[in-house]
Automatic annotation (TrEMBL):
InterPro entries: NADH_UbQ_OxRdtase_su10 (IPR019377), NDUFB10 (IPR039993). It is a peripheral membrane protein. This is NADH dehydrogenase [ubiquinone] 1 beta subcomplex subunit 10. Transmembrane segments: none annotated. GO terms for cellular component: mitochondrial inner membrane; respiratory chain complex I. It is found in: Mitochondrion inner membrane. Accessory subunit that is involved in the functional assembly of the mitochondrial respiratory chain complex I. Complex I has an NADH dehydrogenase activity with ubiquinone as an immediate electron acceptor and mediates the transfer of electrons from NADH to the respiratory chain. Residues 1-26 are annotated as: Disordered. Keywords: Electron transport, Membrane, Mitochondrion, Mitochondrion inner membrane, Respiratory chain, Transport. Residues 17-26 have a biased composition (Polar residues). The lineage of its organism: Eukaryota, Metazoa, Chordata, Craniata, Vertebrata. It holds the Pfam family NDUFB10. Belongs to the complex I NDUFB10 subunit family.
Amino acid sequence: MPEDHDWEAYKVPPTRTPVSERTTSVPNPVNSFQSAFSYVFDAPVTFVRELIERLQNKNKFYYYHQKFRRVPDLSECLEGDYLCYYEAEAQWRRDRMVDQEIVEIVRERMAACKQREGPNQFQNCAKEMELLAQVTKAYQDRYGDLGYHGNARTCLMKQKHRMMEERKAAEEKQQ
């Protein structure tokens, strides 16, 4: 459509709403009620809401994901400190869920690369394959063989046994 409209060609049709002809000097009670309602109820509520919105816009917080504070590891808890045990267990569960998601994301990237590259997947997806191997090995080292009911204590014991085996293997290698 052209920018400058020809108003003579496109005339606005006349409105069909009749013009009110006031024949009395008594005000309409509906208009009085509407204006009273507006001043008594609507105006204060609108004022308070706008005031709150202005204050909230000054201090705007952006929540991308929930951030938990890091709690001490189970090995750092004092004996008999059951609250510390509970917090360490909850932290371990969150860490396990994060690690599961990391493995899943890397696995999805690997599948996308294989789908995209087709027959050349072994050449072009070598970095993704190596990354997936590293991530799954790290996950298996930390959480493998714990089963569904694994917890922070059994994971800590597994890491302790693995460290002891590594020390023993290093000592045997030196002798």
